[in-house]
Structures are given as C-alpha cells and as structure tokens.
Amino acid sequence: MAQALVVGLPHRTNVDGVFAYVKPKPGVKVSPDDIHEHCKGLASYKRPVHVELWPEDKSFHVNRVGKIDVPAMIKEAEPLVEKLKSAGKWD
Question: Which end of the chain is more exposed for a tag (fewer CB within 10 A), N or C?
C-alpha cells in the first residue's frame, strides 16, 4: 500500500469500530475484500469494520506540519459510517 490510516469511530458492540482508509500504490489493484482477507488473523476487535479505498490521485488530508490530519479524516469518515449504519453494515 502507498498509504493507510486506521481510525476508531463509535460502534455499539466494540465501543470503537475500526475504519480503515487504504490508498493503493499507483497501478496496484486491491479491493476491500482483499484487505479484510489479509486481516483475518487479527483479533476480531482489531479488524476493520469497513475499508474505504482512497483515490490514487488524492492525498490524505494533512495538517500544517505535513502530518496526516486525523481529525479531518475522521470527519470525512463520519457520513460514510452513517450510511453504513443505515444499511445495517456498521453496528
């Protein structure tokens, strides 16, 4: 992977559900199912509930010192989690 970030978002069962952003290297094809398969050896509470593929041509949000802006990434994930909840795929 070119870049990955895992954040915790409120989850009814696990307190925090694992939400993973994955940005593949250019030209590499990967699917959320591939990531879930790779994580099968982890304890269930450590595995991502959802894997969001980040576009190759878009950078993760960064703060003024050039580090990943985790609060901004969480804000980006929140509406996605609401959609997942509505579809019964989060809690």
Answer: N
CATH 3.40.605.10 fits domain 3-86: no
Lateral strand order in the sheet of 50-53: 3-11, 15-23, 50-53
The number of CA neighbours under 13 Å toward the Cβ of 42 is 12
- Taking only the tens place, the pLDDT of each residue in 17-55 is 999 999 999 999 999 999 999 999 999 999 999 999 999
Owner of token pair 């509505």: 86
Q: What token pair was written down for 72?
A: 């901004």
pTM of the model: 0.93
Q: What residues does each domain of the chain span? A: 3-86
